[in-house]
Design goal:
The complex is a heterodimer of chains A (141) and B (111). Chain A is of the alpha+beta class and 141 residues long. Helix content of chain A is 32%, strand content 27%. Chain A has helices spanning 19-32, 37-58, 111-119; strands at 6-13, 66-73, 77-84, 122-127, 133-140. Chain A has a five-stranded antiparallel β-sheet with strand order 1-2-3-5-4, covered by helices on one side. Helices cover 39% and strands 32% of the residues of chain B. The longest helix of chain B has 15 residues, at 55-69. Chain B is built from four helices and five strands. The chains are: A alpha+beta (141), B alpha/beta (111). The interface between A and B is medium-sized, with 28 and 23 residues.
């Protein structure tokens, strides 16, 4: 049974230990939205990368603020909104990583966002007037 | 995440179980360090019981690949990768940096 037009909200402490529960929360909604097994993994990975970015770059470390996660199970798929209250951080401004280089020249920066762009159908970033960042991602069925 | 290391004559096999993310990747790093600090650089990573790897996890593997290949003294090879994980590795473009084997026996045999 696919449940549509359901809105789910949860707040998680911004620390790496939260990643497993954030992923669990999103994976359940992705199942309820009727996404395929492959797409559920893609969503799970994108959310993990986005939340790691929030902790690392927006908050600059663990335990400095919360991550608000809002999930909208829509007719056509799953919409995910992640909000933090840290420093403005626009991942799309980070240059895309290069993978056509010898291994010693590989750089990790920007890989998470690059993955999210490839794995999700839509990705929007905005900084909010009251501070912090909002990332909205969408995966269709 | 549980991690076990098995020493073979020609190489070492690291077998992890669970999900590798920013929280658990330091455990993986520790396991690889244990091997490389003992002066051994031929490593098979058995991923049959690994069902999630974030870019943080790939970075532990990349860093160790750099370390192991230095002076041509060894390599990190992967065995038994699950389909979803393999897809994300390919998407990022990191699959070019690792040999992938269908099972541990052939991975061990490659050394």
């Amino acid at each position: 049974l696919v449940k549509t037009n359901t809105l789910l909200k949860r707040t998680f402490p911004g620390r790496y230990e939260s990643l497993a529960s954030i992923r669990g929360f999103v994976v359940q909604a992705a199942k309820d939205a009727g996404l395929s097994e492959e797409d559920i993994y893609r969503v799970e990975l994108s959310v993990d990368e986005a939340c790691t970015n929030i902790i690392e770059h927006a908050y600059g470390g663990e335990d400095r603020g919360d991550i608000n996660c809002t999930l909208n199970i829509e007719e056509g798929g799953l919409r995910i909104r992640l909000q933090d209250f840290g420093e403005p951080f626009n991942p799309s401004k980070v240059p895309a990583p290069r993978f056509d280089v010898p291994i010693d020249q590989l750089k990790s920066r920007g890989v998470g966002f690059f993955l999210m762009k490839k794995l999700m159908d839509e990705l929007h970033y905005e900084s909010t007037p009251q501070g912090g960042n909002v990332m909205v991602m969408y995966k269709s069925k | 995440m549980d991690i076990a290391i098995t020493n073979f004559k020609r190489c070492d096999v690291v077998k992890a179980n669970g999900r590798i993310d920013s929280y658990t990747s330091p455990d993986l790093e520790k396991a690889f360090n244990e091997i490389t600090e003992a002066g051994k650089f031929k490593i098979v990573f058995d991923m049959s019981d690994v069902n999630f790897v974030s870019s943080k996890g790939w970075w532990v593997l990349i860093d160790n690949q750099k370390k192991c290949r230095r002076y041509k003294r060894g390599e990190v090879v992967l065995a038994n990768i699950q389909k979803d994980i393999q897809e994300s590795l390919g998407l990022v473009g990191l699959s070019n940096y690792f040999k992938v084997f269908d099972d541990v026996t052939s991975a061990v045999g490659s050394f």
